């Protein structure tokens, strides 16, 4: 069965990349929150800033939601794969 | 003189009865009354038959029989032995040529003695 | 709203919370934790982060500083975006080590050092007290504002904070110290908090919707007004973001979500497992988002609508009130009330846990010098009471602080002061979790440095003591203080860690924390031999090599390990300590184990675990012990019965064999001679002689049967005694006469002490005579001396009765056979001499037993010697 190893490899790969994304997300969030304030404090302090920060905030929430869903799914696949083939993890 | 029969029996009345019965058949019967010295008596007198009581003071009939069968002298060791026992069990006298349970039948005793001596 | 109505509403609301908490505790106790354990409940409970400082203060903050208020919520949001790899690890490690607080986490990581935990507790107490005061103040202010009629200006309202503090203390004690669960979870409190979180959220969102669509013309209008603020002189300066402050605030609030005692309590301690962070990872930022979303609009609209000089911290209440929305205002009031109360309750639980676990209990143990693991109930009770006392003390401190500070202004910054204080724990916490090189001395250095700087630069100035940090112009003093304290804190932590060397406990704990490996299950890795070996060496010094090796090997075996080094479980250490205490005293043992094992047995969690385990093990052992004893008893009884039966069976076989022999022997003579008598040829002399033999042997048979019957009667205890008074002299004379029939040919020299023989005895004279005849007869039969002699001596012992010795001058009885002579059929010599079945002495023994006396052989009398002992009276013959 040539398909299965390929599939497992993809699942594992995907899980690892998602893990990377989970690590990068907070750093990314920090950068997006700090840099504009350091860069142009005057223009971001009022309405623009409110839109930017609350937009960023909402995007982060959605991002974490999607990321956690994807991670859980990838983990479930990896666990199932591990039940079939313990080396897959 | 070599007796026909050596009897080793501690009960004097039984010994007297046996001697009386067998001597009327012409056998010459010697008596030894103790387990101790029993085997020496056999070696001394070289009887043609040994009548041995199982329950003897100091040394049991079974032990005397064992000593006899182990004797160096093959002809002595082969001396026929009639074992008398009052205990109802006979396995203690396995190596005896014949076993007679007390109380015995006088005729039976005479027959056995005849058979053992002439065998 | 009238004061009374408001009070009634509050009381109803509080009663609802009590009811919810009670129901949740009941459900949890019954095992119905499904919905209690739901990730959304967990997420809502995290909202204790949003205290009254958020609920009222965020709008005030936004009024003064614009978007800067959002940093308080953006910091936690960033932390929660890293929930997958960060918070999950924290929760897993903390639960693995049964961590009960942030102080406990730090102490566990750094070699279970209680002193470190005590310092962290000190920071927590100092930081929390004003924070609690702030909550009390917000409740008081909202009350004052909301109650339209005031029954008593000073008294009732001045006492509001006290009543609130008292009520919350009651709630916290009731639901926070119900039991001392191993996992330190409080379902009732958490559920009530989750409900309050909903109330907070709904209230705030309702107000926001009202403000945006009711007071303003929708979001676009609000945005325009926010944009206009740039031109508004009231906002223009304050609202411009300062990058340094912005960064520091995000950092500090991000630290706070991890280190604030109440946050650690709900996020880590109350979490059943780390999986709920999958939901909380996005749901909690969403909650914060929702709570923050309308802050700016409310601030803008409040400034626009409300009169100049109105307290922006109370816009959320005054806005709906000014707009005539009384119900909305009441809802908001309850939301604020919820925010304040939930924060106080959780904070009190968390800080009280720290105070009791790291201050009170270790102090008590040090005072009492109780060996670890003893006095289970005592310790548990003490810990619970310590927590109750701590809760009361914290509430009292908060209230006192509130009363003492009096002014609102001093309290306004208290939220940030608390944040920065607890943030000083962050370097040690993060370093401990991420860096194996971090050690206790580094943690001491970092935390102490940070604590000192925080006190000097932030806390004391906030209460009006000391001055601000002299900083260059253009630099925010608060930011500088935060940066300085955290930087020096981190530097000290890292520097000392690098140059220090951790002890083995720390290294193992460090490995466990950093690699998130189970400290016990991965015993070989996490709890290596490097601690067991010094303990073994120490034990060897105390007990000697062999004993120590034996004990350690047995312990290792009990844990299922081979070799001599058991895992250093609290149980093992406690057992070892107790065992050592038996040799060197408990204080020394404690100190030695402490020194060698690094004080592992010191944390309260361990003590409780040990106490629990010890109790369970004790009960289990007792149960097993009882069962095993019962089994052993039964087995022993069975074995005894079996032995007895076997012995009886053997005895019976031997007995039957003996009887057979004894009966067949005379029978043989009788039979042989009676047959001979049938022969007519025998002489008359022979005939009469043979008849005589038959007669003698028949008599012998009769005697044997008589003896057997006699013996069976005596042995069965059915002997009929005819007790009379008798003179021993007469009895002995009669016995001698009767026994002279035995071997009459032998003449004995009889040596008697006639005057002494005249002793009256009360006994069965016939039976005693039987014994004497037997004994004297035996002497006549067996005495082998050429000139036989017999000595009979009688005397009366002090206890009454009589002692009769019969001694002959023969060779006596071999020592080996002396014990056999009283057995049945134990004839000493040839039966011709004995003339019996060997039952004589056996019968004598039974007779003497029946008479209450004894017969025994006296060795070393120069011949066979028998002693007959008679009691004053036979047994059962009273009077």
Could you describe the 3D structure shown?
- The complex is a heterotrimer of chains A (89), B (119) and C (879).
- Chain A has one domain.
- Helices cover 89% and strands 0% of the residues of chain A.
- Chain A contains 3 helices and no strands.
- Chain A has helices at residues 3-39, 41-44, 47-84.
- The longest helix of chain A is centred in the C-terminal third of the chain and has 38 residues, at 47-84.
- Chain A starts with a helix and ends in a 5-residue tail after the last helix.
- Chain B contains 5 helices and 5 strands; from the N terminus they run E-H-E-H-E-H-H-E-E-H.
- Chain B has a 5-stranded parallel beta sheet with strand order 2-1-3-4-5, with helices on both faces.
- Chain B has 119 residues and is α/β, with parallel strands linked by helices.
- In chain B, strand 1 (5-8), helix 1 and strand 2 form a beta-alpha-beta unit.
- Chain C is built from 39 helices and 7 strands.
- In chain C, helix 2 (39-45) packs across helix 16 (277-293), helix 7 (102-109) runs antiparallel to helix 8 (114-146) and helix 28 packs antiparallel against helix 31 (586-597).
- Chains in contact: A-C, B-C.
- At the A-C interface, helix 1, helix 2 and helix 3 of A face helix 5, helix 6, helix 12, helix 14 and helix 16 of C.
Rg of chain A to the nearest angstrom? 19 Å
Structural class of chain C: mainly alpha
Quick one: how many beta strands of chain A? 0
Kindly state the percentage of residues in helix of chain A.
Answer: over 70%
What's the overall geometry of chain C? Answer: rod-shaped
| Helical/strand content category of chain A | mainly alpha
- Quick check: average pLDDT of chain A? 80
Beta percentage of chain C is under 5%
The SSE order of chain A reads HHH
Instruction: Enumerate the spans of chain A where pLDDT stays under 50 for 5 or more consecutive residues.
Output: none
Helix content of chain C: 55-70%
Q: What is the global morphology of chain A?
A: elongated
The average pLDDT of chain C is 80
Describe the secondary structure blueprint for this structure.
The complex is a heterotrimer of chains A (about 90), B (about 120) and C (about 900).
Chain A (H helix, E strand, L loop, with lengths): L2 H37 L1 H4 L2 H38 L5
Helix pairs in contact in A: 1-3
Chain B lengths: L4 E4 L3 H13 L4 E4 L5 H8 L3 E5 L7 H9 L4 H4 L3 E5 L12 E4 L4 H13 L1
Parallel strand pairs in B: 1-2, 1-3, 3-4, 4-5
Chain C lengths: L2 H27 L9 H7 L6 H4 L1 H9 L5 H11 L1 H14 L5 H8 L4 H33 L8 H4 L1 H17 L10 H29 L3 H10 L7 H4 L3 H17 L1 H9 L7 H17 L1 H11 L9 H8 L3 H43 L7 H30 L2 H5 L1 H10 L2 H9 L5 H23 L14 H23 L4 H12 L7 H4 L2 H15 L1 H14 L11 H15 L1 H12 L6 H75 L5 H32 L7 E5 H12 L9 E4 L1 H4 L2 E5 H18 L6 E7 L6 E7 L6 H4 L12 H4 L5 H11 L3 E4 L7 E6 L9
Parallel strand pairs in C: 2-4
Antiparallel strand pairs in C: 1-3, 4-5, 5-7, 6-7
Helix pairs in contact in C: 1-11, 2-11, 2-16, 4-17, 5-14, 5-16, 6-16, 7-8, 8-10, 8-19, 8-20, 8-22, 8-24, 10-19, 10-20, 11-16, 11-17, 11-19, 12-17, 14-15, 14-22, 14-25, 15-19, 17-18, 18-19, 19-20, 20-32, 22-24, 24-25, 28-29, 28-31, 30-31, 32-33, 33-39, 34-36, 36-39
């Amino acid at each position: 069965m040539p398909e299965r190893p390929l599939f497992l490899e993809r699942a594992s790969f995907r899980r690892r990349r998602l893990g990377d994304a989970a690590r990068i997300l907070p750093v990314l969030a920090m950068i997006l929150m700090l840099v504009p304030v350091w860069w142009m404090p005057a223009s971001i302090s009022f309405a623009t800033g409110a839109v930017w920060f609350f937009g960023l905030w909402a995007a982060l929430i959605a991002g974490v939601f999607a990321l956690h869903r994807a991670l859980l799914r990838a983990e479930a696949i990896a666990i199932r794969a591990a039940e079939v083939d313990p080396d897959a993890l | 003189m070599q007796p026909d029969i050596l009897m080793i029996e501690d009960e004097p009345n039984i010994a007297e009865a046996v001697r009386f019965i067998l001597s009327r058949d012409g056998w010459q019967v010697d008596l030894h009354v103790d387990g101790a010295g029993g085997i020496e008596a056999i070696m001394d007198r070289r009887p043609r038959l040994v009548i041995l009581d199982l329950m003897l003071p100091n040394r049991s009939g079974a032990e005397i029989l064992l000593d006899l069968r182990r004797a160096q002298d093959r002809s002595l060791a082969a001396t026929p032995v009639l074992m008398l026992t009052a205990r109802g069990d006979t396995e203690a006298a396995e190596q005896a040529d014949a076993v007679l349970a007390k109380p015995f039948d006088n005729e039976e005793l005479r027959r056995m003695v005849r058979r053992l001596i002439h065998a | 709203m009238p004061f009374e109505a408001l009070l009634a509403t509050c009381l109803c609301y509080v009663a609802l919370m009590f009811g919810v908490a009670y129901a949740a505790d009941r459900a949890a106790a019954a095992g119905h934790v499904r919905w209690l354990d739901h990730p959304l409940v967990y997420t809502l409970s995290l909202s204790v982060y949003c205290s009254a400082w958020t609920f009222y203060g965020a709008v005030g903050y936004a009024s003064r500083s614009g978007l800067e208020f959002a940093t308080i919520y953006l910091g936690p949001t960033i932390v929660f975006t890293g929930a997958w790899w960060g918070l999950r690890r924290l929760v897993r490690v903390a639960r693995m080590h049964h961590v009960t607080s942030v102080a406990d986490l730090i102490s566990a990581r750094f070699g279970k050092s209680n002193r470190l935990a005590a310092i962290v507790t000190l920071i927590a107490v100092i930081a929390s007290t004003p924070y609690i005061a702030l909550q009390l103040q917000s409740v008081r202010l909202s009350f004052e504002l909301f109650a339209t009629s005031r029954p008593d200006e000073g008294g009732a309202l001045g006492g509001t904070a006290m009543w609130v503090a008292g009520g919350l203390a009651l709630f916290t004690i009731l639901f926070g110290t119900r039991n001392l669960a191993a996992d330190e979870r409080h379902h009732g409190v958490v559920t009530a908090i989750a409900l309050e979180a909903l109330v907070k959220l709904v209230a705030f969102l309702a107000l926001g919707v009202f403000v945006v669509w009711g007071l303003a013309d929708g979001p676009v209008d609000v945005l325009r007004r926010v944009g206009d603020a740039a031109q508004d002189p009231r906002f223009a300066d304050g609202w411009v973001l300062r990058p340094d402050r912005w960064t520091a605030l995000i950092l500090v609030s991000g630290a706070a979500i991890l280190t604030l005692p109440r946050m650690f309590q709900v996020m880590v301690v109350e979490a059943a497992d780390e999986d709920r962070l999958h939901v909380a990872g996005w749901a909690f930022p969403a909650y914060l988002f929702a709570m923050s979303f309308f802050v700016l609009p409310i601030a803008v609209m409040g400034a626009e609508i409300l009169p100049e000089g109105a307290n922006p911290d109370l816009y959320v209440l005054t806005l709906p009130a000014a707009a005539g929305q009384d119900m909305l205002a009441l809802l908001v009031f309850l939301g604020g009330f919820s925010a304040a109360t939930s924060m106080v309750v959780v904070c009190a639980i968390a800080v009280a846990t720290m105070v009791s676990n790291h201050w009170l209990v270790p102090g008590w143990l040090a005072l009492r010098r109780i060996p670890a693991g003893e006095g289970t109930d005592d310790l548990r009770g003490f810990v619970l009471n310590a927590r109750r006392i701590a809760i009361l003390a914290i509430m009292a401190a908060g209230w006192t602080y509130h009363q003492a500070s009096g002014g609102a202004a001093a309290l306004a910054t208290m939220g940030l002061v608390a944040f920065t204080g607890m943030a000083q724990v962050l370097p040690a916490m993060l370093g401990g979790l991420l860096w194996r090189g971090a050690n206790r001395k580094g943690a001491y250095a970092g935390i102490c440095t940070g604590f000192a700087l925080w006190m000097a630069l932030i806390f004391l100035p906030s209460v009006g003591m000391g001055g601000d940090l002299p900083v260059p112009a253009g630099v925010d003093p608060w930011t500088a203080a935060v940066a300085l304290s955290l930087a020096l804190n981190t530097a000290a932590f890292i520097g000392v860690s690098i140059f220090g060397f951790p002890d083995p406990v720390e290294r193992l704990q460090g490995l466990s924390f950093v690699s998130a490996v189970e400290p016990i299950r991965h015993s070989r890795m996490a709890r290596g031999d490097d601690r067991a070996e010094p303990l073994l060496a120490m034990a060897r010094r105390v007990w000697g090599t062999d004993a120590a090796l034996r004990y350690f090997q047995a312990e290792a075996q009990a844990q299922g390990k081979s070799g001599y080094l058991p895992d250093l479980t609290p149980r093992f250490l406690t057992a070892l300590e107790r065992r050592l205490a038996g040799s060197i005293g408990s204080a020394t043992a404690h100190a030695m184990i402490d020194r060698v094992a690094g004080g592992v047995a010191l944390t309260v969690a361990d003590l409780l675990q040990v106490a629990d385990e010890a109790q369970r093990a004790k009960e289990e052992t007792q149960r097993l012990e009882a069962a095993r004893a019962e089994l052993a008893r039964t087995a022993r009884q069975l074995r005894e019965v079996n032995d007895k039966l076997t012995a009886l069976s053997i005895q019976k076989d031997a007995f039957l064999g003996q009887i057979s022999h004894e009966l067949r022997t005379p029978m043989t003579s009788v039979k042989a001679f009676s047959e001979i008598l049938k022969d007519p040829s025998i002489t008359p002399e022979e005939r009469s002689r043979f008849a005589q033999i038959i007669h003698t042997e028949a008599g012998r048979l009769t005697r044997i049967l008589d003896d057997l019957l006699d013996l069976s009667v005596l042995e069965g205890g059915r002997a009929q005694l005819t007790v009379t008074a008798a003179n021993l002299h007469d009895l002995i004379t009669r016995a001698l006469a009767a026994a002279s029939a035995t071997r009459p040919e032998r003449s004995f020299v009889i040596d008697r002490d006639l005057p002494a023989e005249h002793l009256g005895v009360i006994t069965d004279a016939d039976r005693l005579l039987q014994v004497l005849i037997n004994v004297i007869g035996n002497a006549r039969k067996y005495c082998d001396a050429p000139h036989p002699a017999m000595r009979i001596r009688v005397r009366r012992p002090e206890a009454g009765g009589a002692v009769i010795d019969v001694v002959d001058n023969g060779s006596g009885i071999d020592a080996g056979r002396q014990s056999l002579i009283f057995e049945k059929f134990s004839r000493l010599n040839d039966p011709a001499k004995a003339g019996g079945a060997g039952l004589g002495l056996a019968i004598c023994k039974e007779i003497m037993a029946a008479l209450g006396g004894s017969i025994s052989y006296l060795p070393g009398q120069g011949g066979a010697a028998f002693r007959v002992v008679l009691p004053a009276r036979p047994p059962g013959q009273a009077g």
